[in-house]
């Protein structure tokens, strides 16, 4: 291999799609906030510019009034031409006149030629709306416009008339607008940045973590590489994060439990296989012993055979329940009575003392899975026989009848104890016998559900127990 060959560059790490979406949303909110603040500042600018224009005009009027007072202090209200020009320059106006008793008195007049269009502006009769309209017109007014401003003079009975070029006002308005625009943009930028940072840390980052955990859960529910930690936040995001954290913990525990159960199931299957082989060998020995003429052996052999049969059935039930799912039902026409009698013959082989009464109609054909129905009936009849024999019930009788509600299995046993009734159809919890597992009823109900029906406890008590099988085709 060439030693000068460079190692391949690692693939660039790309952000999850959800993270890019949330960041894009933050930037869009940033732009929206910036535009909204600038829009509001624009609405505020018009009244603000109107106030600036009014202040500008009042400054010129005040300067003109001061110049008029200077004339009042001079003899005959006359000043030299040089002083008049200086007063006009200080006031930044072109001319000043007063109207008193319908007499127009020119106080100060510029020696410059005034050219342009005149615009009358009476500040004595103005409103906020009119001032706003006038300031908007000032931006679009021609540069050579001359303002003729009329206002109250040096005394209330006098009217002052001031001639001012509009070009300086327009220039100052544009400068004021630029300052306001810059300041507004700076304020909007700061506000939008603050909102963006708050959204990023308060909303975006937590939602990115939550969404990443959800996506990771979707891709690999059982292979957590990181956990979403609970938060002390009490808002909707905090509640969602805490709920997701709890769900992650519950799912992780469930997957760990499933893995342990899978390992346990594999071990049980292996043990069951070896145990059944050993029990089969023991059963062969038991059959050989049963042929012995020794009275003691003949007395003990049936008990040994029943014990071996129960052990084999226990191993079979445990293995059947450990399967991931029962085989799907193969629905076909089945002779109800024939199937139940065959199941009873198999279930009661070890208990010949138990009487079996079949009250089912001989010609009744139903639509069911024959294997499922056989196993279901075998489990129910075997459980009833074991309960009656263990309790030494008299008489020992199992009756199968067909009612309007379904097929009922009735025994004459002592009834189910409270613990068994409370944990009915729960594996390893509902058995009334010390050596039982409670799997027979669990498997029977699974088979009934697989055929579209159900298995329920109809009644139980000192006189016996009734289980009812409900199937769609069992209605009389």
TrEMBL record:
Q: Does the keyword Cell membrane apply?
A: yes
- Give the matching Gene3D superfamilies: 1.10.287.130, HAMP domain in histidine kinase, Histidine kinase-like ATPase, C-terminal domain
Report the residue ranges that make up the Histidine kinase domain in this protein: 270-475
Task: For this UniProt record, give its keywords in alphabetical order, as a comma-separated list.
Answer: ATP-binding, Cell membrane, Kinase, Membrane, Nucleotide-binding, Phosphoprotein, Transferase, Transmembrane, Transmembrane helix
Q: Where in the cell is it found?
A: Cell membrane
State a single Pfam family of this protein.
HATPase_c
Q: Looking at the UniProt record for this protein, which Gene Ontology cellular component terms does it annotate, in alphabetical order?
A: plasma membrane
Kindly list the GO molecular function terms attached to this UniProt entry.
ATP binding; phosphorelay sensor kinase activity
Protein name (Swiss-Prot/TrEMBL)? histidine kinase
Q: What is the lineage of its organism?
A: Bacteria, Pseudomonadati, Pseudomonadota, Alphaproteobacteria, Hyphomonadales
